[in-house]
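To assess whether ligand presence alters the predicted conformation, the chain was also submitted together with NAP. Input:
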Amino acid sequence: MIETDYEVLVIGAGVAGICQIKKLQENGIKSLVLEAGGGLGGTWYNNRYPGCRFDSESYTYGYAFSRDLLDSWHWKELFSPQPENLKYLNFVADKFDLHKHIRLNAAVEAMCWNEAQRQWSVTLASGEVLTSQFVITCTGALGVPTLPSYPGMDDFEGPSFHSYNWPHTPLDLAGKRVGVIGTGASGIQIIADIADEVGALTVFQRRPNWSVPLNNREISEAEMADIRRRYDAIFATCAKSNGGFDHLPDRRGYETVSVAERRALWDSLYDAPGFALLLANFPETFLDARANRDLSDYVAERIRARVHDPDVADRLIPKDHGFGMRRMPMETGYFEAYNRDNVELVSLLETPIERVTPTGVETSAANYDFDVLVYATGFDVMTGAFDKIDIKGVDGDRLKDKWIGSPTTYLGIMVHRFPNMLMVAGPQSVSGSTNYPRAIEVSVDWVTGLLTHARATGVSRIEAQSAAETEWTKEVIEMQENMPFSKVKSWFTGYNSNIHARDAAPRYVAYWGGAPRYTKILNKVSSEGFADIQMD
Ligand code: NAP
């Protein structure tokens, strides 16, 4: 019997890590979560920007593993805001007495596999080293922010920060001149939320994104009681939906319905909550180029109807990709913000930023002075959190080197030559492409099942076989290449213009085969005794 400090160390106390530690404790596995931040909650602990909220229906985002938990939490809004989400995750940790299994301010800097001992040595930023038989990474998809590299960024004299690093202490924006760079999901939430509070807001937009109304509203006690009664049906729908949402496509057939009927459906979906227009639509509007053009024209028309200045409206309408071909931000009053006198849109496609100055931003056409500058410029998605840790597997192989072009994994959960390391919501899993918690619970159950199987059969070393990893990565590539957005540059296809090497070619960071297919594959692997995993 090998002596280790822990049977399992979990890295990260976000949505995945909290769920994982609950299951490990339930199974009597000696385990601890190491969390870099000063509180649990991951993305909901870190993202404190104004307007930050779910764009999954709240009641599909909560954990499904406990009926008691489902019955005891009241989601107050259809799309719950960040403070409430953080409260929920702490409520879960309180309810299941998980805090004592989570160490905060414990950033992992390195992980080294010791073959002789069959254990991982995990080094913290403090220098402390812990040993564990297994490590489960729950490091999240979007936790490593990336910044542009404009000259002069350090010289700006006022507060400037990435949206992910919005100060935790209150920042009074009343009457201030604020610049926001970036119009992805974070930028769009911030812009809409602060437009009526700030003195002047300048939005620096590079490529516009399609965005449609979130249609948020409160959830009454009576509606919540009804949701509680329907939870089983709601989660069953999520399990059937490719994206893990409470929306199923309209399968009447795009060509079989009249233009007026399509229009009626789109009008109702535009006013429906969440991703309805994307997910409850005719599948052809996503898969077929002509249908996608029709829908894009419809959404463009809706934008034009909401933005008073036709030139501004035109700049806000994407021209380089169709509706739904990048991760769609959802908005609340975003387009109306541009009708305000204190809001200006600057297109970086027309006048790029040349430098940041001590007092603001200089584009090729003008100087803008700001009190506060916000970079809502995205993340080193899926693999960024792994690259931050020096992970060395068999013979000192570095994971960072193995993944240099694009990651390779087995089921998005294991990596050949990195034994006893398991990933929840890792690259090439379905988590990156779906309603996150729905996929996480499936992965956590599978990983926990694998560990209990290893335990029960006296196995101390598990490693994905090389051929199985090659097969899975091939499937991941095929699924992405089949997607209509495979040639569109966005984080879906692994691009990031702020990381030089990631602006050159697509990367395969998420599984696009859909949640039902992914779950089926996982179930098949476990029911067949994990044949592609070498166990000894
Ligand atoms: P993002 O979608 O990657 O958007 C980054 C934005 O910054 C884009 O508009 C991008 O322009 C711009 N940008 C990047 N580098 C730039 C540069 N050097 N100069 C000028 N502009 C630059 O990032 P995000 O908005 O933080 O969202 C990331 C993901 O987080 C979302 O897709 C979503 O999955 C998640 N998220 C979820 C929620 C939610 O669920 N409610 C909210 C926020 C975020 P280009 O398009 O031209 O590159």
